[in-house]
Amino acid sequence: MGICWGSSADNPTPTTTGRLSSVISQTTSNTASTSISRGSRFSASSGDEVFPNGQILPAPDLRIFSFAELKSATKNFRPEMVLGEGGFGKVFKGWLDEKTPGKSGSGTLIAVKKLNSESLQGFEEWQSEVNFLGRLSHPNLVRLLGYCWEDQELLLIYEFMQKGSLENHLFGRGSSVQSLEWSIRLKIAIGAAKGLSFLHTSDKQVIYRDFKASNILLDGSYTAKISDFGLAKLGPSASKSHVTTRVMGTYGYAAPEYVATGHLYVKSDVYGFGVVLVEILTGLRALDQNRPSGQHTLVDWVKPHLSERRKLKNIMDHRLEGKYPSKAAFRIAQLALKCLEPEPRNRPSMKEVVETLEQIESINEKPTEPKNRSTHHTTRRHRQQPVHQRSPLAPKHEVGRGYQTPPRVR
């Protein structure tokens, strides 16, 4: 979670009792009254295996962790256990000891997000995360296992995602970072699209509002799972096309109509998905102030290249080494263009996006070896230094190995 746009009028006042009021509310004055009981427990059997198409629970079903338990799991929150860091605070790798008789070292890997006491938006986003993700279950959403609230300590506990974030794989450098081959990139795009589609087509539409590469986490088999629901909102009522709210999001990903007016549409998420598709194709960040003038914002720069195969080839990620099916890449570029339409009504639904991506995958076109790569292009791309983008209006972003969040802006 990062630094946000706007004032605090959009969020409820933090409560001081042993219960949390829900932040899930309709656009009218009627607020849903779900809450979290300190006695509720997480059931390991109530997951995606039972509901492969996802489900929304009537109330959060989460385990309540003690602070002492999490201190032990993270070795007292040691620096070497840090997975990443954002505006909310640090995320630590942890190991839950299940105390199984006769089994040494048995347990479960977890990710523990610990609130920074100086976080500007911490409590509200922590509360929103619990009330949204605590009720949502889908194979392409990160599972929230539980939370901790003791004195001033606020923590969230998630399933551990072995491969970290899509952001790290696309933009990270070094021997520990593995580039993604074409088939895996397509698999990730489909999984993330399914997660968004589930949110958009549920009985109570959920607008994610902060879709970006750092919020797409990957498990051991590169299954994509959407994380970080701190900015999620319920969609508009049946009689309305949008909800009006303070503008919050991340430079380079937020839909133009939302930034300009504060009108948030379900298809505002589709725009963000289009940006991520372009990142998957190019291996370049949505926003990079270190690129030459005119190229800082990825979408503005590469849009003209997406409509022609010859131009598309010039901006494809050099780490693919030309090993990708050109027809499939072009079809995805065309899909990205549709997602990036200026008018929300002209963008496809996420259900349509999923169908298109699955059709592209089903063709199973064999990646072709490049006949001749442009030396100039390869040199230019290799000269680019790894940059973790920073808004001139946002504080310096500290980068981890996964679970990290690019800066949001005010």
From TrEMBL:
Residues annotated as domain Protein kinase: 77-360
Residues where ATP binds: 114
Protein's cellular compartments: Cell membrane
GO CC terms: plasma membrane
Keyword Mitochondrion on entry: no
Domain of life: Eukaryota
Biased amino acid composition, Polar residues: 8-31
Keyword Ligase: no
PROSITE patterns linked to this entry: PROTEIN_KINASE_ATP, PROTEIN_KINASE_DOM, PROTEIN_KINASE_ST
Span list, region Disordered: 1-39, 360-410
Keywords per UniProt: ATP-binding, Cell membrane, Kinase, Membrane, Nucleotide-binding, Serine/threonine-protein kinase, Transferase
Protein name per UniProt: non-specific serine/threonine protein kinase
Originating species: Gossypium hirsutum
